[in-house]
Every structure is written in structure tokens, then in C-alpha cells.
Design a protein that fits this description.
The complex is a heterodimer. Chain A is mostly helical. Chain A is built from 12 helices and no strands. By secondary structure, chain B is mainly alpha-helical. Chain B has one domain (about 1-240). The chains are: A mainly alpha, B mainly alpha.
């Protein structure tokens, strides 16, 4: 079985899992208050930022800080637990498939789900910016040339965290510890991005991306240039090592 | 004996070690914060406990809420995983008493967690504010206030966990609720009284605004109401299962 058909099977497994609703809910919850508060967004509290940038960044702040990593954790729970009912994993492992490939196929699904959520967020952003513009008589809509690369960057920055969560989910068999460790790792990112060693904490990468965008939109608030070094090599290393450990763990998986 | 049964079910799930582990994670926070930024806090005027709580309680409360969400999901996950709940339904045990026992166990564990966290705060005071003594009564007041404010969150999380067969759904709803209340504006009293939001409140601030009794009353009321709602829900569900 090749990689694509394995991924297809994984997608089929989660068809009735209602995960899309779980992905959609925070997106709606995030942008509804934005419409209601669109009047307050005009008050930038002395920060030199345009209201439309303020609207975009404030709206995405909670999402990037907490919801993207938390979504990844929920998706790992889904991918692991869906195999537990009726001994699904046992049946999977009796098939003549490469276990490492199975591990990577599951990881591909793990990457696909937040991508879907990002698409939903983009649509929700445009919907809410459009409605707010109509309500306030001020143009909140930013051009797609700015929005799409921004959201793309948030998404790409979340990939190392996805690999780490996937490794945690496979290594720690007790779900309560796997989930608890993941959630506890998400919480301190607000503090960690203000330290010099933020690049060692993959869960804060998307938030760092957002803060650099904030720095660009509001001069002097945060750094505007991304420190690619040593971030990029560290991020790549974390991702590769986590994936390698997950593959090894999956190839020795026993129920 | 039935209480023992509930405890037995949780034995191999990692439920009991999870609470001290969560408490350790949350307790590490004020200690690290003090160790790194000692001058910022020791120079502040006022009661050391208030300074420490102002600096770190938001983060600690969030960790507590996430711990509760995670552990309550786990509690019902073990029931649903091997259809244990169906077996429980044939026993002469009322579903609601099963639920209430789970609630009591979680509350006891949460009270322990907050106690460990306050012990960590006491350690911080002894370490970095040597002139200030530790007022045990003050600690007990803060501790009991935070435990009571956590009750509605425990209750609602358990209700969600009991309603959802799949762990990712109950966990997803719980995490989304935590997220929702963390992004909502903070200047409405009504929102502060909601489950998932009340644990962030502090006794000192509530007393200053004259809301301490209100918080306690509303939180206990919410817990009782939610408990009754769960009782009705379980009764209705039996007709359809």
C-alpha cells in the first residue's frame, strides 16, 4: 500500500468523528466577538497601529497562542483513540503495511486538519471583517496578498509543534498524561516568547510569527525581523527527531 | 464500597498521579517567576501573598482548569472505552450517584492540587519575603475560596465528559470553552461568574469590589443547578439508549 492510499484510509476512519465541528467551533467563537467589539477596535490605546491591522491581529491572537496547539492535541487524541475502539490498531497491524509509513500517514492527517481550520479561519476573518466594515462604515478588510502569507506562516510555524505532540501521543500511552503534558506545554508560550530561548519551545512558534507581524504593524512593540538563526535549524531538528522517534515507536507498537 | 469501586476504576488510568503532576507544574511557575524576576516583585508594596497571586494566579488557574478538563474526560473515557458504562447500567446503581461520586473524587483532588500550589506560594514567601510571616488563616481563606470557585468548572466538565462517548469530543469542547472564556472581554461581572472563568478570580480583588459573597453564592448555586440538570439529563438519556 502506498503512502497516499494509507492517508486516504486514515481520512476515511475519521469521517464520522465530528472533528470538523470541533475545528469549526473556535473559529466561529473567535470571530463573533470581533464583530460585536468592532467599535472598540478603533480605539488602539495609543499603540501606533491601523484599526484594520488591529482587527486582524487581535482576532488571531487567541487562536495562535492557544487554539492552534490545543487543536493539534485534540487531533492526536482523535488519531490514537479512534484505533482503540474495537481493537482497530490490532487489525491495522495485521495488514501487510509498513508501520513507519502508517505513522507518517497519520501525521499527514494531523497536518491536514489544522490546515482545514486555517482555511476556515481565513473565511471567517473575511466574513467578520466584511460585516464589521458594514456596521462601522470603516474598511477593515486587508488585502489577500497580506492575509494569506500571514496565515500560511502561522500554519507552517505550527508544524514542529505538531511533530512534538505526535511523538508525545505515541510515547506516553496513558492518554491523561499525553494530553496533560501537551496542554501544560501550550500555556507558558506567552512568557517564553519574551525570553531569549523561545526557539527551544515549538509551541510558541506560531505566536512568535504573530508577534513579528504585530511588530511590523505597530512600530516598536516587538521585533520586526524574524531571527532565522538559530531558530530554523532548531525547528527542523526538533521536527525530524520527533518524527523519527514516532516512527520507531510505531514500528515497535504492541497492543 | 461503591466509593472504593470508583477509586479502583481510576487506579490504572494515571488519574491520581496526574493531579500532583499538574500541581507541580503550576507550582513551579511562581517559584521560577520569583527566582528570575526577584527584584520586580520584592520591591512592590503590599501583602506578599497578594503580590504572588497577582503575578502568577492567571497562569496557575489556567493550568488547573486544563487539568480538570483533562482528568474529567479521562474519568468517563474509561467507562465508555470498553462499554463499562453499559455494565454499570445493569447494576442496581443510580447513574447520578455514579456521577456524584466522580464529582466528589475530582473535587477532593482539585482541593489537594490547590493546597499544593498554596504551599508553593508559602515557600516563595519564606524564601523571598523573609520579613513577612505566614498567616495560616489568610491562606485557608484563599484556598477555600479558590476551591469553591473551581466547583462549577469541575461540574460542567464532568457533565460534558458524561455526555460524550468519544474522548476527543469532550476534550475538544472543554478546550474550546477554556479558549472562549480566555478571549472574552474581562470587564463584565456576569462573565466572571461563569464556569471556566470564575477560577481566575482572586479573593483580595473580590473583597475590594465587595463581590466575595456573590462569587461564593453564585458558584455554589451554579454547581447545584448543573448537578440537577445532569440528573434530569441522565434520566432522559436512559429512555433513548
Amino acid at each position: 500500500m502506498n503512502f497516499l492510499s494509507l492517508t486516504g484510509i486514515e481520512l476515511q476512519k475519521i469521517r464520522r468523528s465530528k472533528i470538523l465541528l470541533i475545528l469549526l467551533a473556535p473559529v466561529v467563537i473567535m470571530w463573533l466577538p470581533a464583530i460585536i467589539n468592532s467599535e472598540k477596535i478603533q480605539d488602539v490605546q495609543g499603540i501606533p497601529i491601523t484599526p484594520e491591522h488591529n482587527f486582524f491581529i487581535q482576532g488571531f491572537m487567541g487562536m495562535v497562542w492557544f487554539m492552534i496547539p490545543a487543536t493539534l492535541i485534540i487531533c492526536t487524541v482523535l488519531l490514537i483513540q479512534i484505533e482503540q475502539t474495537n481493537h482497530g490498531m490490532k487489525k491495522m497491524l495485521t495488514l501487510p503495511i509498513n508501520r513507519r509509513m502508517l505513522c507518517l500517514a497519520k501525521f499527514a492527517v494531523l497536518l491536514l486538519l489544522p490546515a482545514v481550520q486555517m482555511v476556515m479561519s481565513t473565511a471567517a476573518y473575511y466574513g467578520s471583517a466584511f460585516l464589521s466594515s458594514k456596521l462601522q462604515g470603516y474598511d477593515y478588510i486587508l488585502p489577500p496578498g497580506y492575509i494569506f502569507p500571514c496565515i500560511g506562516k502561522f500554519y507552517l510555524a505550527a508544524l514542529p509543534a505538531a511533530a512534538v505532540f505526535w511523538m508525545i501521543a505515541l510515547l506516553i500511552q496513558t492518554p491523561v498524561f499525553a494530553v496533560g503534558t501537551g496542554l501544560a506545554l501550550c500555556v507558558p508560550s506567552v512568557l517564553i516568547i519574551n525570553t531569549d530561548y523561545w526557539f527551544l519551545h515549538p509551541m510558541s512558534y506560531p505566536f512568535y510569527m504573530l508577534m513579528t507581524e504585530y511588530g511590523k504593524a505597530a512600530k516598536g512593540l516587538y521585533t520586526t525581523d524574524i531571527d532565522w538563526f538559530p531558530w530554523l535549524p532548531v525547528a527542523v531538528m526538533i521536527t525530524v527527531v520527533s518524527l523519527a522517534v514516532s516512527c520507531v515507536k510505531m514500528s515497535r507498537y504492541e497492543e | 464500597m461503591r466509593f472504593g469501586m470508583e477509586l479502583k476504576k481510576l487506579r490504572r488510568t494515571g488519574y491520581f498521579p496526574a493531579f500532583p503532576a499538574g500541581a507541580a507544574a503550576a507550582s513551579a511557575f511562581p517559584i521560577l517567576n520569583m527566582a528570575v524576576r526577584t527584584e520586580v516583585y520584592t520591591g512592590l508594596p503590599g501583602n506578599p501573598l497578594d503580590i504572588l497571586l497577582d503575578a502568577s494566579w492567571q497562569m496557575m488557574a489556567m493550568l488547573n482548569i486544563l487539568l480538570i478538563v483533562c482528568c474529567t474526560c479521562m474519568m468517563y473515557h474509561t467507562e465508555y472505552a470498553e462499554n463499562g458504562i453499559q455494565k454499570m447500567e445493569v447494576l442496581p446503581v443510580r447513574q447520578i450517584s455514579l456521577f456524584l461520586r466522580k464529582f466528589l473524587i475530582t473535587t477532593a483532588m482539585a482541593a489537594l492540587v490547590i493546597m499544593i500550589e498554596f504551599a508553593a506560594l508559602a515557600f516563595c514567601i519564606l524564601m523571598w519575603f523573609p520579613d513577612a510571616g505566614i498567616d495560616l488563616k489568610e491562606f485557608l481563606c484563599h484556598w477555600s475560596f479558590e476551591v469553591i470557585l473551581l466547583l462549577p468548572t469541575i461540574m460542567v466538565s464532568l457533565i460534558i465528559a458524561s455526555a460524550c462517548r468519544n474522548m476527543w469530543i469532550s476534550l475538544g469542547i472543554g478546550v474550546i470553552l477554556v479558549f472562549t472564556f480566555s478571549v472574552l472581554p474581562k470587564d463584565y461581572l456576569f462573565l466572571d461568574l461563569c464556569p471556566y472563568c470564575s477560577p481566575y478570580q482572586l479573593l483580595t480583588a473580590a473583597e475590594e469590589n465587595g463581590h466575595a459573597a456573590l462569587f461564593l453564592g453564585v458558584c455554589i448555586g451554579e454547581t447545584a443547578l448543573a448537578g440537577m440538570a445532569e440528573h434530569i439529563y441522565l434520566k432522559i438519556r436512559r429512555y433513548f439508549s
